[in-house]
Design a protein that fits this description.
Length: 336
């Protein structure tokens, strides 16, 4: 798959721009007032992976290419963003294409940094952000429904079915629930995927503060949303490897590796993908023309000292089209 992408959302002054700066080491505007970030900042960040360095050394590779994550940081949302309050609503469209959303929630207390809602209340902040995302999605759903109604009237069975699905989503959103509460079967349907709904995406809550700032009510709120969280004091960290790892976890992603004299590289795939699909991430032709894969776990390859050494020991396996690629597999693809 291409680089995975993550949208960063939150109210103003919660630490979004600080997070983005840590992620990308890019100098962007960080100011103590809403709407300091006008254009969506995009940063491409390497996925931390100790295996690459070791394999590069083993193969004396000229280049090392890690997997990457794109982060999109948009202006702070405020209550009413969907109606044009503040600037955040203009930028919600910039994160329609992302794979997951990180909601930065302020848990730290500070007299110096103003809070747009006049007080620290993480549960309320989550509700404000999610309501804005829901309202943006409702707008998308209503536009799609208007189109489907005409198509369904013409008697197209597929369009009638699609209309029913979109109506179900509208019902859920109107009940102030996220679309991702509907389950994978509905969310993976073509009509839902085409709409790129914000609330259908996986969510990670980055709780900006210390462990002591995070209460049980907040943890239960996030659990009730079927989401995951990380507690991180953004004022005191200089890397967010944990966030990238968490993103891989919630999106069900793994990496397989290729190594040789030219380059050592990590490739991102969905957990459960078979060898031909994985080969297709290297080059689309490799999927169609796949013959077999030669496979070894990265640790075993290091232990053997070289690819030839691993071959002599009989550690390299030959796998066919039904092989399910594992995290940390080093692969050589044979194709016609």
């Amino acid at each position: 798959m291409k680089n995975i992408s993550i949208g960063i959302v939150g109210l103003p002054n919660v630490g979004k721009s600080t997070l983005f700066k840590i992620l990308t080491n890019q100098n962007i505007t960080i100011a103590n007032y809403p709407f300091a970030t006008i254009d969506p900042n995009v940063g491409i960040v390497a996925v931390p992976d100790e295996r690459l360095e070791k394999l590069t050394k083993l193969s004396a590779s000229k280049k090392t290419i890690p997997a990457a994550v794109e982060f999109y940081d948009i202006a702070g949302l405020v209550k009413g963003a969907n109606r044009g309050e503040g600037l955040g609503n203009q930028f919600l469209s910039h994160i329609k294409e992302v794979n997951a959303i990180v909601e930065v929630i302020r848990c730290f207390k500070s007299d110096e940094i103003i809070h747009v809602e006049q007080g620290i209340d993480p549960v309320r902040d989550i509700e404000i952000i999610n309501t804005e995302l829901i309202l943006k999605d409702l707008d998308t759903v209503e536009k799609r429904l208007a189109k489907l109604e005409g198509e369904a009237r013409a008697g197209d069975k597929n369009k009638i079915k699609e209309k029913e699905i979109v109506e179900k989503i509208k019902e859920v959103l109107n009940a102030n629930k996220l679309a991702n509460s509907l389950g994978e079967k509905i969310l993976n349907g073509p009509v839902v995927k085409e709409m790129n709904l914000l609330t259908a995406k996986k969510q990670i809550y980055l709780l900006n503060g210390d462990e002591a700032d995070v209460g049980e009510e907040l943890k239960n709120k996030i659990k009730g949303l079927g989401a995951d969280y990380l507690i991180m004091n953004l004022g005191q960290v200089n890397n967010v490897d944990g966030l990238i790892k968490k993103a891989y976890e919630i999106l069900g992603l793994i990496s397989f590796l290729t190594t040789g004299e030219d380059e050592t590289r990590a490739w991102t795939i969905k957990k459960g993908e078979k060898a031909p699909e994985a080969a297709g991430t290297i080059h689309s032709d490799f999927e169609n023309k796949f013959i077999r894969a030669e496979v070894i776990n990265w640790g075993k390859l290091l232990e053997s000292g070289s690819w030839n050494g691993a071959k002599q020991k009989g550690w390299i396996r030959v796998e066919g089209k039904d092989y399910e690629v594992q995290d940390g597999d080093v692969m050589v693809i044979r194709h016609s």
